[in-house]
Design goal:
210 residues; disordered C terminus; Tetracycline Repressor, domain 2; disordered N terminus; mainly alpha
């Protein structure tokens, strides 16, 4: 039987998560309606019925309201990656793990948030910074799938870096095209561009690789 002392941390955590979600929902509606840069923290706290001090208990910056989940997404993708069949290579396994993260997403809202992010320099820069945390989550499992040798660490980091870059580029193209095709189509096209064997230019002007 749980004691009262055991129950309190769980209740506190749930309360904090609820408040975090409520502030996020209020702020995102303001961002999508009025624009990210046009919306101030003062407007957010008034709409959410909290103080500025309370806002900064949950978010370090205004950008974190939009992108706070990015770091946690790395751990979710890692868990999905570890569940992929051992017979899958790292590229296929990573692709499957990332698509699992997107299941059930509201594409219309995701598109609106993506447009906002790619059109706002501070959000774009912050998203790249947060994606860097994914290396710690994903590289160990990718390295294991490469055989686990010490010299595979660099290769594993390169693969994860390519995946992150392809996801970023695909998201931007998807946003610019107003989501005319599924996001995964853009992601696959970006991956194919990297994984396709490099073609050697023909003719006497073609210089050999250094």
């Amino acid at each position: 039987m749980s004691s009262m002392g055991d129950a309190q941390p769980g209740l506190w955590t749930r309360s904090r998560q609820r408040v975090y979600a409520e502030i996020t929902a209020v702020a995102m509606e303001l961002f999508l309606t009025n624009g990210f840069e046009q919306t101030t923290i003062d407007e957010i706290v008034v709409a959410a019925g909290i103080s500025r001090r309370s806002f900064f208990r949950y978010f370090g910056t205004k950008e974190d309201v939009v992108l706070g989940h990015f770091i946690a997404d790395g751990a979710v993708i890692r868990d999905q990656l570890e569940q992929r069949p051992d017979g899958e290579g790292p590229w296929t396994a990573l692709r499957g793990a990332i698509f699992a993260l997107d299941e059930g997403a509201d594409d219309e809202r995701l598109l609106a948030v993506s447009r906002m992010m790619y059109q706002t320099p501070s959000l774009r820069a912050r998203s790249i910074e947060k994606h860097l945390h994914w290396y710690d989550d994903l590289v160990p499992e990718v390295q294991r799938r490469l055989g686990g040798q010490a010299d595979s660490a660099l290769q594993a980091r390169a693969i994860v870096g390519c995946i992150i870059t392809c996801l970023d580029i695909a998201g931007e193209a998807w946003s610019v095209d107003d989501g005319v095709e599924p996001l995964r189509n853009y992601f696959d096209a970006a991956l194919d561009a990297i994984r396709r064997p490099l073609e050697t230019p023909a003719g006497p002007s073609a210089a050999p690789d250094a």
